[in-house]
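Could you show me some protein's one-letter sequence and the numbers that encode its backbone in two labelled lines?

___
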Amino acid sequence: MPIRPNAPGVARQPVQAETSTGRGGSAGSNEADTSGVRTHRDEFVGGESDPLVQSAMRRFSARIKAIFDRDAMGLAKRAAGVTSQQPEPTEAQRAALETAAIDLVKDLPVRALSPEVAGKLKTGLEASGVDIGDLGARKIGSLGSLGGDVAKEVVSDFKEQHPKSYYGLATGVAVGGAVYAYNEGSEALKKLGIKPEVTANLGQNTKIGGSASWGKKFSDFSGTLDATHKIGDAKNNTVLSGSVTAHHRDESLAIESARLGVTHRRGDANNNTVISGALNATNDGTGLDITALRLGVTHKSTHDNGWKSTAKVNAFASSRADDSVRLDRLDLSHKITRDGLSLDNRLKLDGQGSVTSGSTLLSHRGALKGVKSLKAEYGKDLTLEGMSVGYKLNTEYRGGRLYAEGRAGYDLKVDRFDASLSAGYTKEDLDIAITAGRNERQGNYVGVGLKWSF
């Protein structure tokens, strides 16, 4: 997320126009050299001498390094051969990038914004009856929901209008535009984190949305339309949902699949019961046939002695050639928690009621937020197949952040032991990490990473 600083006493300069993301198949896709370029104003005006801006950028830079494994731990794991450099950002990395960008805007003072965006904040505050004298010195995130909404809007607009800057600076991906989407297909846009989809609210309780995908030169088009409708209040409600996917076939769109779902909830956050069901149907060329059914029940309770429990049952069924329905799988789980202690049991049964797999996880969160765990894994008919112990810690320590993670496990099926240990410490411009362990692929391994800015 760039901030464009100006020298003291110099008027804010315009930024060179850059290509904006176009919509696939748009009329202007053949004129990308002209219609794909727009003139825009700066989102930020910033300043090299502004301490609040520089602090916010340092925190954002540190998060970006961690998200994309460019910190010391990422170096250590690559040095040990545990991980390799991702050629393209994952979906989780793109989501983390957007969250970090929004937090960056919240971390900035209002004076770092362009007059257009700062004016929107001031107008909104005045409309709410809030009078802030030195608004420019306030952080955007301190202005409540209005500041949060503006932060999301700024990031969304910047991401849409300047994708080359947004993704190029953070992930090294620097391609975009309508011609790219048309020539390479919708998957090319997804690599940029840009999804060809749209959503809209019809009143407070109804939401509709649509998405599309296509191949090169806009071939093999497929689109999905979905909708949800809520009945009731926050405690007791029923949500109906449905979606239809159509595919380009024989010069027209044919329905390819459909899904209907219903979720019924009763109770508050501490004690509630949720019943849900879903039906899937696909078109095999002769019409829509039901192919899968799911029914689930979740019950949460808070007991007088302080224990909390959650029980879940999920049944999965499918249709057969003779139009009958067969129970394929039954998933059962029960979890109880109290004062940082948690016991989680899970079982999977086949259609005849025999256990196919399961696990038991006992964990405890200590005073320093360190989590100790003991896990047992089962196979068919509850045969013990593996045991493991683990520990995770992520806490502040002497003005910095200390993190550690360790695991040791034994696989009874193949008589194999593996273990791993990672630890690191970050403080200001120092970031150091080490990882070590043993596994079947690498044998014994160790890696060290160090970053020090000065």
